[in-house]
Amino acid sequence: MKTLKTILALGILFISFGAMAQNDDDKRIMADAENAKTTMMAADASLGDFFNNSAGYVIFPNVGKGGFIIGAAAGNGVLYENGTAQGMAKLKKLSVGLQAGGQAISEIIFFENEAALNSFKDGDFEFAAGISAVVLKTGKAETAQYKEGVAVFALPKAGLMAEASVGGQKFSYDSF
């Protein structure tokens, strides 16, 4: 009986440490997302219209991508509704085509309406080859439009990647 209690206590301890580590990661990602939002707004203030008028948005502050013929990208982010964080998201991308290099970017996806936002939250959301990101430069967001319920903006942070490829992004979401 004493052994069982010890095993249970150790199990609870490991679960607690795992939850604390996950919580620390989430806090870091949330802080990075807020910094990315500030940086992207500084790069193009007209992005404010999207923040103010979308049903919600997800910020992936640190997306790493790289490839040589076959490419991949991944990142963690935060989903917001009405400016309030609602949960954590993950991005994964695979692509094939003419591509070489590596790059770090920040990416924001705006959802035009509740249907697009709910599709993301339900896990039914993925990008087809026809959706592409607008690379932020001053004034670019002014002319950007939603396509299939989303508008995507990216801000390169480091690295260089030449890319003419076809692929898709897949997402997952966990609410708080």
Strand and helix map with partners:
Blueprint: H1 2-43, H2 48-53, E1 56-81, E2 84-111, H3 114-121, E3 134-135, H4 140-143, E4 150-175
Structure explained in plain terms:
- The chain contains four helices and four strands.
- With 176 residues, the protein is α+β, with helices and mostly antiparallel strands.
- The chain is 34% helix and 47% strand.
- It has one domain.
- Keywords: Signal.
Describe what is shown at a glance.
The chain is of the alpha+beta class and 176 residues long. It has helices spanning 2-43, 48-53, 114-121, 140-143, and strands at residues 56-81, 84-111, 134-135, 150-175.
Which runs of at least 5 residues are low in confidence (pLDDT < 50)?
Answer: 3-21
What integer value in Å does the Rg equal?
A: 19 Å
Measure the end-to-end span.
36 Å
Share in β-strands: over 45%
Please give the count of helices: 4
Major sheet: order of its strands? 1-2-4-3
Look at the structure and give the mean pLDDT. Answer: 81
Question: How many domains in all?
Answer: 1
Helix and strand pattern? HHEEHEHE
Based on CA inertia axes, which overall geometry fits? globular
| Main sheet specs | 4 strands, mixed
Give a count of the beta strands, DSSP E runs of length 2 or more.
Answer: 4
* Percent range of helical residues: 25-40%
Structural class based on helices, strands and sheet pairing: alpha+beta
